[in-house]
Structures are given as C-alpha cells and as structure tokens.
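ok trying again, last paste got cut off:
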Amino acid sequence: MADVIKEVDVKKDARNRVTLPDAAFEHYHVRVFADGHYELYPRVLAEPLISTRTLEMMDASMASLEEGQVGEPLDPDTMLSALDDV
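nice, full thing came through this time. structure:
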C-alpha cells in the first residue's frame, strides 16, 4: 500500500460536491462501496488518434455534403482494375 503523503478533511457543499484541494489530476474514477467509503483513482484521458487538422477536414466535408456539393459516384470495378495495374 502507498504511503500517505497528505490528509485533509473536506465537506460536501449544497450540491453534494466535494472539492479536492491541490488535486494532482483533472479526472478521477470513483468507486462507492456499500459501507459508505469512496475510492478515487486518477484518470489520464488519452489524446485522440485523429489529428485536429483531419477532424476539421471531416467537418468541412460533412458541411459540403449537407449543402449538396457532392461528386460523381465511384465505380468500384474501375478502382479495383486500377489496383491490378499497379
């Protein structure tokens, strides 16, 4: 078990919230037990796998689609034959 480095007493407010002074993380996973005690585990949210630039391009593409700006349908057979030529 980890050593205790700090102990504080906290009180819930009128909205049933508890503030953690000097919290090291922004997000926590909370487990509530039948006997009334709580456990908080820090969570580090992962960075998205898709870049901001790609997401912006996808948003612009969807906006164009909604405006009716679309290209001609693609013929899959033509695309497959082009791959065979490579």
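cool. The first helix runs from residue 52 to 66. The chain has a mean pLDDT of 89.
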